[in-house]
Structure formats: structure tokens, C-alpha cells
């Protein structure tokens, strides 16, 4: 039984609201990290072709003994593979590295707007969905105008947009736009990559008030806003801590104090500028 409640995507598929991210986990360490996460109760894993750890992730899944239908596996198409035929080839490669016969969610990693290929790429995603090789399709790092253009040219509304989102970058406009379109907002770097966010005095004070850690407070804030979160850690105690966020609730005052921390400040790239 999963410890994590699901959200229902726009095509009826259930996705755990909290999962495990594996960016910057070397392939050789991914098997151990994902095994630790599965043992701690995570059922959703977020990898990507560019992370180079689909094999290690797949090994952990295979050896876990967790029934496939209880797992939710996300991977992402890398930028250099955008385009209709190249997407279908890249998907086969990802699936083979993962050792799976389908993935639960496939995302276009970055829109690369200057390249003008995300519509063709997404049409290949629609084929993968129609063929039953993915259970849901979505995008990552799409700005509102990229989403609007995609929706005008394709048939399936993305289930998810995975974007950078944390207390210093709260993404109000994007979240509202997603809600209007029925797209789930998934937060990458939900802890701000562990840099700075967890030391903010207001967050430390809320943590002390609830007898929780700053990371738990930030994750709980995301969950109460309705975001899907995928914190990454290779540290077993943190892996356990990050999923132990369902036994307390932040009050209105806590939520307001965290809302006040927004600085519209990215730690990663601006999606408008990533074109290769
Ligand atoms: N779509 C995209 O373009 C994109 C971009 C970036 C990330 N992502 C996805 O989002 C996931 C999460 O983002 P992220 O890896 O950038 O950052 P994150 O989850 O916000 O933070 C991870 C960092 O915080 C530390 N940490 C984790 N839990 C902690 C805790 N309880 N207390 C203190 N420190 C803690 C980790 O250290 P240790 O590992 O050393 O414990 C690591 O350095 C990625 O793994 C990836 O799956 C997607």
C-alpha cells in the first residue's frame, strides 16, 4: 500500500503526488538510491534519458519485487532527439534501458522554442500514447506561450508540465494557466536543489513550530498547493524524511509566510533560452 496519495491526471491515470527524482545520480549509484526509495515507500520515480541512469533505475525496479502496476515511472525525451521519427527511436532506447514494456509518463524535457520541433515531437508522443506504450504524456519547462502553441496544433492536452518551482520561484502565472487547462503542475527542484531554501529563517521557524525539518515543511507546502513533487536525495535518512510528510498540516499563517518568500528567482535555465 503506497504511503503517498495520488492525484488524478486529465486522462484519469493516477500519479503519486510525491515521487523520487534521480537527476545527478550516477548510473552506478542509481540502483542503490532507487532501491532505498522503493523500500521507503516511494512508488513514483522521475528519470530522464539525459540523466544517464535509466539502466540503474530499471535494475532497482526489477529487483524490488514491487508489482509494475504499483509503480509510476517517468522518463524524458532529450533535446537532441526532438522530431517525430527520432522521438520514436529515443523512446525505444529509454524503454530498453529501463527494462520496461511501457512508461507511465513521458515528457518533452525542454521546448527548445527556437528549433520549432516540439509540435512534431509531441505528435510522436500522441502515437506512443495511442499505441499503449505510455500511460500519459506531458511536457517539461514549457512556458505558457509554448503550451498555447502546442494545444493549438495537437489533440491531447498534456497531463503534466514539470517546471522549476520552489519558495523562491513560486510560478503563480504558470500554475494558474495549468489549472485552467487541466494540466498538473509538477515541481522540479522542489527543495531549490537544497541550496539556500532550507536555511531561510521563516522556513526554519515553521519547522521548529511543527517539530519537522525545513525540507518537510517545503514539501508539505508544495503538497498543500496541489503540486506534484519529486525531491532527490542519495542520503537514506533524507529519502525517508522526504516521504514522511503526510502526518501534519501547515496552517494558513504558515502558508502565507512561505508565499511571501517568492522572488521569481530561477536556479536553472530560462526555458526561452535553452535551444540545444
Ligand atoms: N525537468 C527538468 O528540467 C528538471 C530539472 C531539474 C530537476 N528535475 C527533476 O527534479 C528532481 C529534484 O530536483 P533536484 O534534484 O534539482 O533538487 P531537489 O530535490 O530540490 O534537491 C536535491 C538536493 O537537496 C538535498 N536534499 C534532499 N533532501 C534533503 C533534506 N531532507 N534535507 C537537506 N537536504 C536535502 C540533496 O542532497 P543529497 O542527495 O546529497 O542528500 C540534493 O543536493 C530531480 O532529481 C529530477 O528528477 C527535472
Structure description:
With 276 residues, the chain is an alpha/beta fold. 40% of the residues lie in helices and 15% in strands. It has ten helices and ten strands. It has helices at 27-40, 54-64, 84-98, 118-130, 144-153, 172-181, 201-210, 214-225, 236-243, 252-259; strands at residues 6-8, 14-16, 20-21, 44-46, 72-77, 103-108, 134-140, 160-164, 184-188, 228-229. The strands form two sheets. An eight-stranded parallel β-sheet has the order 3-4-5-6-7-8-9-10. A two-stranded antiparallel sheet has the order 1-2. Helix 1 links the parallel strand 3 (20-21) and strand 4. Helix 3 (84-98) crosses helix 4. The mean pLDDT is 97. It binds NADP nicotinamide-adenine-dinucleotide phosphate. The site of NADP nicotinamide-adenine-dinucleotide phosphate has 28 residues, from helix 9.
Bound molecules: NADP nicotinamide-adenine-dinucleotide phosphate
**Helix percentage range:** 40-55%
Poorly predicted regions: none
The tally of helices reads: 10
Q: How big is the Rg?
A: 18 Å
Termini separation (Å)?
A: 41 Å
Main β sheet profile = 8 strands, parallel
SSE string, helix = H, strand = E? Answer: EEEHEHEHEHEHEHEHHEHH
Number of strands: 10
The geometry reads as globular
How would you classify the helix and strand content by structural class? alpha/beta
- Average pLDDT value? 97
For the largest beta sheet, what order do the strands appear in spatially?
Answer: 3-4-5-6-7-8-9-10
- Percentage of residues in DSSP E strands: 15-25%
Amino acid at each position: 500500500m503506497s504511503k503517498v496519495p495520488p492525484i488524478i491526471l486529465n486522462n484519469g491515470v493516477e500519479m503519486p503526488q510525491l515521487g523520487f527524482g534521480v537527476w545527478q545520480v550516477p548510473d552506478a549509484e542509481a540502483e542503490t538510491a532507487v532501491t532505498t526509495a522503493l523500500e521507503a515507500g516511494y512508488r513514483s520515480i522521475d528519470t530522464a534519458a539525459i540523466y544517464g541512469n535509466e539502466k540503474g533505475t530499471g535494475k532497482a525496479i526489477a529487483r524490488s519485487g514491487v508489482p509494475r502496476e504499483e509503480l509510476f515511472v517517468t522518463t524524458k525525451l532529450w533535446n537532441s532527439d526532438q522530431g517525430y521519427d527520432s522521438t520514436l527511436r529515443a523512446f525505444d532506447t529509454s524503454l530498453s534501458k529501463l527494462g520496461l514494456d511501457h512508461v507511465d509518463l513521458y515528457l518533452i524535457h525542454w521546448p527548445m522554442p527556437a528549433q520549432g520541433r516540439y509540435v512534431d515531437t509531441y505528435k510522436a508522443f500522441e502515437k506512443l500514447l495511442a499505441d499503449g506504450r505510455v500511460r500519459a504524456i506531458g511536457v517539461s519547462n514549457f512556458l505558457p506561450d509554448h503550451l498555447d502553441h502546442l494545444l493549438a496544433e495537437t489533440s491531447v492536452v498534456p497531463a503534466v508540465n514539470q517546471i522549476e518551482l520552489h519558495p523562491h520561484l513560486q510560478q503563480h502565472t504558470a500554475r494558474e494557466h495549468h489549472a485552467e487547462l487541466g494540466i498538473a503542475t509538477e515541481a522540479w527542484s522542489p527543495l531549490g536543489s537544497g541550496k539556500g531554501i532550507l536555511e531561510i529563517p521563516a522556513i526554519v521557524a515553521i519547522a521548529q513550530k511543527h517539530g519537522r525539518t525545513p525540507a518537510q515543511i517545503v514539501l508539505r507546502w508544495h503538497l498543500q498547493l496541489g503540486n506534484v513533487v519529486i525531491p532527490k536525495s542519495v542520503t537514506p535518512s533524507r529519502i525517508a524524511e522526504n516521504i514522511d510528510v503526510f502526518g501534519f498540516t501547515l496552517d494558513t499563517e504558515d502558508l502565507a509566510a512561505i508565499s511571501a518568500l517568492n522572488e521569481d528567482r530561477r536556479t536553472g535555465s530560462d526555458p526561452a533560452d535553452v535551444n540545444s
